[in-house]
Amino acid sequence: MGIRTPELLAKIDIPRQKLYYLEQKGYIKPHKTVIGDKEFREYSDEDVKKIELIWKHLKKGFKYKIAFANAMDELSNPQLNLVKTEKPA
């Protein structure tokens, strides 16, 4: 279905506790599967993109709520990623 926690942590390089905090606050909702006495989280492609964008803004110093809002803006307006901030030559 999706990507599991260890693969996600390696891909995005986000600390596990920050990833779980995003889930705790409701910013992401991974699918949980119980196998025996263990619970596994699987993240959809949408979750992965959200986490990448939120983490990008958190690393810039934004608080969680603002980082989430900025990430959602980027997801709903892909053109924001295309805007260049460099001055023309």
List the helices and strands and how they pair.
Blueprint: E1 3-4, H1 5-12, H2 16-24, E2 31-35, E3 38-43, H3 45-59, H4 64-76
Antiparallel strand pairs: 1-3, 2-3
Helix pairs in contact: 3-4
The CATH class, by name, is Mainly Alpha
Radius of gyration: 15 Å
The coarse silhouette is globular
Task: List low-confidence stretches.
Answer: 83-89
Task: Estimate the helix proportion, in percent.
Answer: 40-55%
Count of spatially separate domains: 1
Taking the alpha carbons of the first and last residues, their distance comes to 46 Å
Give a short account of the largest sheet.
3 strands, antiparallel
Structure description:
- With 89 residues, this protein is α+β, with helices and mostly antiparallel strands.
- A three-stranded antiparallel beta sheet has the order 1-3-2.
- Mean pLDDT is 87; it is low at 83-89.
- The protein has helices spanning 5-12, 16-24, 45-59, 64-76; strands at 3-4, 31-35, 38-43.
- The chain has one domain (3-82): Multidrug-efflux Transporter Regulator, Chain: A, Domain 2 (Orthogonal Bundle).
- 16% of the residues are buried.
